[in-house]
Amino acid sequence: MNLTLKIWRQKNAKDKGKMVNYQIADVSPDMSFLEMLDVLNNQLIEKGDEPVAFDHDCREGICGMCSLYINGEAHGPDRGITTCQLHMRKFKDGDTIYIEPFRAKAFPVIKDLVVDRSAFDRVQHAGGFVSVNTSGNTQDANAIPINKQDADAAFDAATCIGCGACVATCKNSSAMLFVSAKVSQYALLPQGQVEATDRVLNMVKQMDEEGFGNCTNTGACEVECPKGISLENIARMNREYLKASLKG
Amino acid sequence: MSGLLNSSIGRKFAMALSALFLMIFLLQHFAINILSVFSADAFNEASHFMGTFWAVQYLLQPVLIFGVIFHFVMGFVLEIKNNKSRQIKYAKNNGGANSSWMSRNMIWSGFAILAFIVLHFIDFWIPEINIKYIQGDMSGLHNGEFRYFYELVEKFHSPIRVTAYVVAFVFLALHLLHGFDSAFQSVGANNKYTKALKGFSKVYAIGIPLGFIFIALFHHFTGH
Fold this sequence. Notes:
By secondary structure, chain A is α+β, with helices and mostly antiparallel strands. Helices cover about 35% and strands about 10% of the residues of chain A.
């Protein structure tokens, strides 16, 4: 396949940045999208140009590092995948592909397609954990009975890999799907309920301080989430937050 | 509790509560207006009751006006805040791939509804307030007969006004198609009944505006 790539190039966080056109030839439909970018970068290096910086790590859909907004969609035109799981067979010979970084005030661009998603870490640090007493008499988690329905829902919420596709795709750059997944995975389990009030209040406060937008329930996040995190988690977080606000 | 309205979830909750209140009001407004199709007398009686009963006039009406203003102001405030959360827009954004047009354009359907409410107030509410509270005539009579049905029919003679009303109700339907079940999601109601609720929301969102369109067209074409 011969393709035209329109890629966001930005030297550093302070640079204004712009879209730059590249032509790439002989792309195999069996390549992954990131392999295609590797080939482009090899060509750029051979020509003495600066390669395109982009995030990647495991390349098997579990680490959440590869971001990229491809042809107007987070992780490109496929469902339930990260960018590293996207293959060139999804495109046609002669296509023009727009490749942009995840856009949000809370995710500033570091270079080219690499964005700083540490806002998610700070939200997580604000309450996305269970304080375990490790003095030697900690109860075995498996000894606490939990009904199957709650265990399954908590596990589903815990599959969030924090990739940021929900923020990137939301027209408001809202982080509610991510935060609600983290709140839900603990709220559904007895171990998490002890700190439930502080957790939801602190995580939502941090989320707001980071500059994420307000959720308007478009549902785009659920559609684009590579792990299929459900909007039910946002409804649960809303309930938890209102309950906690009334208590607090 | 004090910080509730300063948080994103608190604002979302307040927006949803005002929306639920306005949707109940809309249903009540429709229930009275549809009477005009079946019986002028019934419509006159209901209108006179709503226009003169103290609890409606001095309790519900101020709450309604507050609810409308709150919903619009909060909607615009949220839109401005949300726009600030993404300062550089995407060169290519395929919003239609993952969300409905209605959900992405609530601000525009909201603007259309706001314009309609201004027209509606000029048509009905301001003259009503003038007659009742400035001229002091609480009788509801004109030449010895109730004036409400006559005023309604008279307003729908103009094809321009009827067209404006029809267009506004189309925007209302678009607004409700997202707003109805979105309000329930915002207050935390997403459970086994959600699928049924989504079905009901479509019936409400299309049915109520369609009913209002029918009333306007009925009086325009029948002339009574």
